[in-house]
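Hi R.,

As promised, here are both runs. First protein below:
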Amino acid sequence: MNKPYGRPDTVSVGVIVWLASELMFFAALFAAYFWIRNLTNEAAASAGVASLWETNTAHLDVAFASVNTAILVLSSVTCQLAANAAEARRVSGSWLNPLRWGMREGFIITAILGSVFIAGQVWEYFTLFSEGYTISTNQYWSVFFLATGFHGIHVFGGIVAMWYVLARSYMTRTHTHEQTVGAHVVSYYWHFVDVIWIILFGVLYFLR
């Protein structure tokens, strides 16, 4: 294994602790989402009208978002392949055989898939904008754009981190333990972002 024995790596521990704080951030975001939803649903029920969630969720393109979600989930697989390759000290490999990809191939494909996801999200935003739905339209669209926007920023941050790890691999002649740690902590972050999106996708696109 490409790591020293005796004690856990401080960078890995630090990233795990940081991800725990990020989890609390998204937990607060989800709490605000359900609180606002309950308030607006109760107000709609009292007034005898359809709730914002019933009327506005229908404007989301679930099929498109499902494809975009599948792309992000697939990127977790390629990210893990990259991390496994870094652990095996395989910096580069065969493009034609995913099981023999090196760290570079895995992270390049993951970064591309993540960029496609971001592009899909931007396309969805502009489609909604063209239909007259913005963050200031009502409470539903406020929480929708805030939740997906914050997540999109996290995905972009993960893509930047991957390119940083890739740049380091091209700047050094030998693969070091620090590079392996860097690959692993990026994979931790990317898997975290993917899991958060799966939950967000289920809540935002299917919960009425």
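And here is the second one, sequence first, then its structure tokens:
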Amino acid sequence: MLIGKKYFCLILDTQRFFIELAYDGTAYHGWQVQPNAVTVQQELDRALSVFFRQPVETLGCGRTDAGVHATQFFAHADLAGISEERAVSAVSNINALLPYQIAVSRIFKVHENAHARFDATARSYEYHFHFRKDPFSLGRSWLYKGVLDIEAMNVAAAQLMQYTDFSSFSKSNTSTATNNCKITAASFRETENGLVFCITADRFLRNMVRAIVGTLVMVGRHEIGASELEEIIRSKNRSNAGQSVPACGLYLVRIVYPYVD
């Protein structure tokens, strides 16, 4: 028995922070950590852990697939014994530890129950096409060789907002509590060398945007009409929809939170 010694247990204050970042997903197997593959989350967790000298595990606003990009992405992490000032000012140091394809734009304190995934009220994606060979679009846009009826595609895209169950555009092996999503915007706009599809919803199912775009391309080729698109949606059967377009053209571009400017 030891006498005359005092033992102290240091309890460090833990605070929750949001990390806003962007990434080129070409070289990564998506966002989420997985065995035997390099992911964006793995690289971010490593950089945060090294700089703050403690194990850090982030939780992201979603799960982008391999090859998918993000111009805006949020993750949250709990840091022990780290002041708000130190965390906020750590952006350049964290970026120095990250690969060039991943960039943190800001770190900011949030309330202790803030959740990067469940608190998001809207998400927006873009899908990029280009029609002429362009080395600067390689890996960042889909080179489409053909003619598309963009007006017909926009008519069909507008019909998406009339439905909520998008089982027809979800990977069949995905198990979720519900396949209901509320789409608030969906349209194509032409660019100098291509096309961009923009879509906003409260949530998205796995592979949903790429499957929707693949089906709308069928409309643009006049392989199906707008009425047949509605039949596909009502069937709730993935095999009735079009093929998923390549990941290289897909970008997560905006996440909305009620408490983030």
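A quick note on the second one: The chain has two domains: 15-109, 125-256. Let me know what you think.

Best,
J.
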